[in-house]
Amino acid sequence: MSKIINDIRETARQLLAEGKVDVVIGYEKGSLPLKATPCFVHSSEGVDSLIWDETCENNLATYAAKTPGKKAIVAKGCDSRALAVLLQENQLVRDDLYIIGVSCHGVIDQRRIGAEVGEILEASISDGKISVKGMEGDKEYLFTEVKDATCRTCRYPNPVMEDLHIGDTIEVAQGAAAFADVEALENKSDNERQEYFKEQMSKCIRCYACRNACPLCYCQECFVDCNSPRWLTGGVNRAENLLFQAGRVMHLAGRCVDCGACSRACPQGVDIRALNRKMTKDVYVMYNHESGISEEGKPALNEYSANDPEQFLVKE
Amino acid sequence: MSQNKIGSVLIVGAGIAGIQAALDLAESGYLVHLVEESSAIGGTMPMLDKTFPTNDCSMCILSPKLVECGRHLNVRTYTNSQVVKTEGEAGNFKVTIKQKARYIDLEKCTGCGACAEACPVKVDDEFNQGLGKRKAAFKQYSQAFPNAYGIDEKNCLYQTRGKAKGKDICLKCVKACQAGAIDHQMEDKEFEVEVGSMILNPGFKIFDASRLDYYGYGKIKSVITSLEFERLLSASGPFDGHLVRPFDQKEPQKIAWIQCVGSRNAKINNNYCSGVCCMYAIKEAVIAKEHSHIPVDTTIFYMDMRTPGKDFEKYYNNAKNNQGVNFIRSRVYEVTEAKDDSGDACIRYSTEDGKICEDQFDLVVLSVGLEPGDSSKELAKMLDLKVNKFGFAELEPLSGVNTSRAGVFAAGAFSGPRDIPETVMQASAAAGAASALLSDERGTLVSEKEYPPELDVVGDVIRTGVFICHCGVNIGGVVDVPSVVEYAKTLPTVAYATDKIYACSQDAQASIKALISEQKLNRIVVSSCSPRTHEPLFQETLKEAGLNAHLFDMANIRDQCSWVHMHEPEKATEKAKDLTKLAIVRASMQQPVQPIFMSMNHTALVIGGGVAGMTSAVSLADQGYEVHLVEKDNALGGVARRFSTGFRGEDMKAFVAGLIDQVSNHPNIKLHVGVGIKDVGGFLGNFTTTLENGEQLAHGVALLTIGGQEYKPKEYLYGQDDRVMTQIEMDEALYNHDPKVDNAKNFVFIQCVGSRSDENPYCSRTCCTKSVKLALKVKKKNPGANVFVLYRDMRTYGYYEEDYEEARRIGIIFVRYSENAKPVVSKEADTLVVTVTDHVLDRPIEIESDVVCLAAAIKAPADGKKLSKWFKIPLNAEGFFLEAHMKLRPVDFSTDGVFMAGIAHSPKNMEEVVAQAKAAAGRAGVALSQDQVESAGLNAFVNKRKCTACGTCEAVCSAKAVTVDMVNRVAVVNDALCKGCGACASSCRCGAISLRGCTNEQIVEMLNSL
Amino acid sequence: MGEIQVETENKKYEPKIAAFLCNWCSYAGADLAGVGRIQYPATIRTIRVPCSGRINPLYVLKAMANGADGVLVSGCHPGDCHYISGNYVARRKFALIKSLLNHVGLEEDRISFSWVSAAEGGRFAEVVKGVTERVSTLGPNNGIFKVVDGGAADE
Question: What is the pTM of this model?
Fold first, then answer.
């Protein structure tokens, strides 16, 4: 057992025993291989189920606001950023929150593995190597080969705020954010992009798993579920799928912390992140804004500057 | 002055001045008796087609005011009436009014027109300048108030032939009238009203062009007056707006205007400039071109092009440079009938260089001047008012509106030719002056409007009534209105749909009201013109019918459809249908909105302590309101401190000192001199202004009177040689007996320095007169002096024409230069030499001069931008304040509770500044007189169930009206602060905060219906 | 967009453009174009809103998903907002939705944003002319927003 897991458990045990928190939100081993699931530990008896590894892909901030009382939460960089946004938006009270920070090297992209070995039957991780037994064969991967795309571009592997840090921190190269993935798409022709997104939008079945996985989709009633106004009128069709997806991205504009939870949650493999990443890039480039990097910041659309760029205006 | 004052005012003349004054006074708590000689209110404005410089349709902008005035509870309108006797003094007059028999009962007449249809007598229609016919039973014009017919006793068969002999001759009207409204036995009646003050605005008459036989008016059919031309252009005119010659219906292709017909003419003792003709001629030329479907060649023959009003110069330049109107500076000798049989007219004229030319036109329009009407003269005589030599009332110097008699005020052309905004300004100023006189009696004689209880329609089946307006031919000429009506009938919720010739007319309003109850309509849609102008009118009708005013929407199928798709009738019709559908969808989803009342602070803040600011402050203080007067300079008086004499010879030093004395000693005025403003917050009724010294002033309204600045010339050696000076500097030098000017023999005045240029494309209005005054002063002092005025157009409008004439008479030399060949000032050794190309001689002349006086432009105030931010008020391109409406709201900002006066609005002379300052005080007084501020209630509102308390709404609200209640975890809107912009609603991801009247539900359904 | 259909055989294709105009500037500018009788194509269907700040970016998506050929959004020039900052608040949303839609392959010219003041009647007409021309060139809204019915339609 790694020292990190041990420290997490001991911290949780102590917090619960001292009555500092009512619940600890962390990860436990899931029923499927390579997929940890969130768990809620209410008493010291439960702390030993807590784990920490490259399968802890959920953004636990999603559960923070919905969990009443004082809570401790195991937070990666992206979880902490989501927590920061939630704090900015009055969805959490800092005093009710104990952040157990853990630096994260990234999570595993199971879809990538599944594509090669079929349904994953068994898997084990050790020393940066992942051995997988699948329906269509076995394979061993280096973690770096199957690291989730989100994590490859992560600029905040260390929590941006925390009450306690467990384990080492990760050194991050300083510098401007890079958006090679977005640029690759941008460099394609309008037609090529349109074809790409037509295909993506055609795949969406509007199960809303993306929305449910998102720590920042916390509306009481999502616009797509609303009867009045009737934002969506037809059945599931591509135009309305785009209305939903683009609408959701607009709602995440200047708020999205690029955790990738939406893409990982999608059963259809829709490239949702392609939309969110574009938005993240635009907000970064136009307004020099990164979401959730401090508790004090503001979502980008809650602010403006008299000098905001105006390239969007009609040509005259 | 009477101690026994009466809270009521007599207004004589119900043109735009009378209407404006009546509304201002009635709104601020006085009972108004409005006396009109003709059978309907409106005056001259309804006859005009469009108004300059915005080309607004005259009838369209006036119509809401007609209705508002006509139905105002505290305006008693007497048509066909005249004042025959007055007695008493300021504060308490007894006025005898004679009302001529109309022979049709106003109470019973529905305005259906059956009497006119049945009437066999056809006579020339005065309203159409005799170009069309009307019956002896007639209504002046279709939108007239009262919306009732009357019988012209001079032409009625029964009245002229039957009545005296007791014979039942004709009486067809009686048979035709289903309402039983006709009463041929009606008699004239006389009655008395008691009033505290009088406002006289009986208007003007146009010059009778037949008095100048060389123009051929009355002899040559193709020679008409400008007012006749207005009727030709008008959609409601004798040819339905089809531009044709009245006598042969030929469409004119070549039209000429001759300026100054009856104006600037000493031979007939009309040596004043009528001020409005240059602009209306340009407007008529531009509109004629737009109106006609064949190309029209337009030429204006003029002496000086006088476009000194706000935005006039731009209008002129546009006509000249973009619209292709020809301008010929000339003298017209005569107009003769063309020798061919064309019916055309020939104009013989000489150009500036003395060449004599002749040209033939299809139509010649005489730009006739303005004269005092006969009834104006009688009125002045009856009241023993001072009049000038032309018969116009003479106002007290620098009073703006005071006649020679206390308690009697004048507005509009009664005291001289005036355009519409000046007339409206004077009307508001006169109303303010009357209000100041009678402030103790405010509210004593008025009654309040009672609306029927509001019908509870919540939960009822939606029954939408749809009214599609033809607007004469404005809409109906392009859009297939009946098909829009048929289409509307097919749409969901529509229970009733019909068309209206003019939806805004009194009869249409009455019919809408009746239909609401007959058809049980609970939503109303009107497809007509712009809601920006007409929404309040229709909403009033809803209220009168017991419907909440917000169960309503308008589709703009005129300004944004028929007028802009004139050549695509089918597409325009499709668009009109769609726009109507959108309005129906929005209205059908509209819920009743209740107004919100907020407190009114009855204190005014006046910013700027020049003549305008001090005049406004005194007027408001006299009206009984407390006033804070803030002046950032260390002394009051503004630029006027540097003036010696006014344009009518007034002692400016004494005038300014008098004003300073008044504001310093008035118990209602608190001075804040030498301190600027740091910040402004709030809104009508509840402003808070923080001064630089930290003091906070609470006030209900604000008047911005911050003046302007004199252009510092970069040209003509200004600043390099002290003999080159601006007008103000020369005035000071003369006053101080500066040897530079006292000993000078040669004076050169250069006009348009920094005005009418690319940089400042406007005329500074006052400089021509000012230069003439200064030139006269030096010439009279030293008759041997050589005085030159170098000008582009001499713009000595109004009575200043006399000064210009005198100046020429006593030997002041006027040399015109063109924009492209400006004079040059050079220095040879120590001699100043001005070189100018003379247009008559066509060669440069050199003038050695001792003094060069530059008519430096008047520029917008430097602080305009700051005030613009603080009060959320707009500036025009040159930085002057932009009024809410160029014609009819000349001192109001579009922001409620903020008013303007003086140079900061546009350049003007002192007399005009005073009038405008009083007008601003009058308008501000109307606002201050209200007990409470009423907000329409179209505010943001929160659905608590959906709100997540994220705070986005709070972050984006510039009015600081939304806050998140963290205890209940919900956003809360402060209705007093909410401005209804909806930024919160568009930013709310959860759809929890919305905007009344513009909900997501409505917009989405509108998009779904498209 | 319901009943109006594109490109019937005889008629030249006429786009239909949903226009959101703020009451104080652009709507007034459109009125001014009318007063000046400045002609422009009858392609826009105007929805009057108090302020460009009221315009939810979802409206743009909704209009396009409903089949509009284009969307025009116009408000007061920055600094001129009747409500002080409504257009500043809106400006970020407009920039982002425009860029996002362009990214998913919606033709740039379908969605147009402009600032038109109450004094710019002529400019308003020019803007509508320009937008209409460009949308006409693109033809009907048959790209990314084309409605493909019947469940998660694959192509």
Answer: 0.74
Which of left, alpha, beta for B935 (phi over 0: left; psi -120 to 50: alpha)?
beta
Cβ C73 vs Cβ C91: under 8 Å: no
What is the rounded CA–CA span in Å between residue B823 and residue B820? 10
pLDDT given at position B473? 78
- In the structure encoding, which two tokens stand for residue B835, read together? 């070189």
Structure tokens at B472: 């004469």
DSSP string of C57-72? Answer: HHHHHHHHHTT-SEEE
Q: Which are the contacts of C30, defined by CB distance < 8 A and separation ≥ 6?
A: B559, B560, C21, C46, C116, C121, C124
**Which residue ranges of chain B lie beneath pLDDT 50?**
none
Q: By CA distance, what is A280's nearest residue in C?
A: C96
User: Which of B950, B956, B1001 faces A89 most closely, judged by CB atoms?
Assistant: B950
Rg (CA), chain A: 20
Residue in this structure with the two tokens 């008459």, named with its chain if needed: B205
d(CA B437, CA B199): 12
Are B956 and C89 within 8 A, CB to CB?
yes
Neighbouring chains to C with at least 3 Cβ pairs closer than 8 Å: A, B
The answer to whether the Cβ–Cβ distance between B1003 and A229 falls below 8 Å is yes
Per residue in A253-284, pLDDT tens? 999 999 999 999 999 999 999 999 999 999 99
Would you kindly state where each structural domain of chain A is located, as residue ranges? 3-109+147-302, 110-146
Question: What is the CATH class of C13-138?
Answer: alpha beta
Shortest Cα distance, chain C CAs vs residue B879, angstroms: 13
- CB atoms inside a 10 Å sphere around CB C109: 18
pLDDT at B871: 87
Shortest CA gap A261–chain C (Å): 20
Q: What share of chain B has pLDDT > 70, as a percent? A: 100
Chain A residues whose beta carbon lies within 8 Å of the beta carbon of residue C155 = 198-199, 202
Residue of B nearest to C51 (CA): B981
Q: Torsions phi, psi of B312, nearest 5? A: -70, -40
Do A271 and A182 form a contact (C-beta atoms < 8 A)?
A: no
Q: Which of A186, A201, A301 sits opposite C93 (nearest CB)?
A: A301
Interchain pair B981, C53: CB under 8 A: yes
User: Which residues from chain A sit within 8 angstroms of residue B1003, using beta carbons?
Assistant: 229
The residue type found at B118 is A
Residues 25-84 of C with CB under 8 A from B: 27-28, 30-42, 45-51, 53-57, 59, 62-63, 66, 68, 80-84
Per domain, the residue ranges of chain C are 13-138
Listed in sequence order, the residues at least 6 apart from B909 whose beta carbon sits closer than 8 Å to its beta carbon are: B646, B647, B765, B766, B769
The predicted-structure confidence for A171-211, as pLDDT tens digits, reads as follows 998 888 899 999 999 999 999 999 999 999 999 999 999 99
CB-closest option in A89, A229, A251 to B1001: A229
pLDDT of A23 higher than 60: yes
Nearest residue on chain A to C126, alpha-carbon basis: A316
- In contact, C99 and A278? CB cutoff 8 Å: yes
CA distance B590 to B999: 9
pLDDT of residue C4: 42
Structure ipTM: 0.95
Cross-chain Cβ contact A250/C91 below 8 Å = no
Q: Which of A89, A229, A251 sits opposite B1005 (nearest CB)?
A: A229
Tokens 């595993």, residue? A108
- From first CA to last CA, the distance across chain C in angstroms is 23
Check if the beta carbon of residue A215 is closer than 8 Å to that of residue A58. no
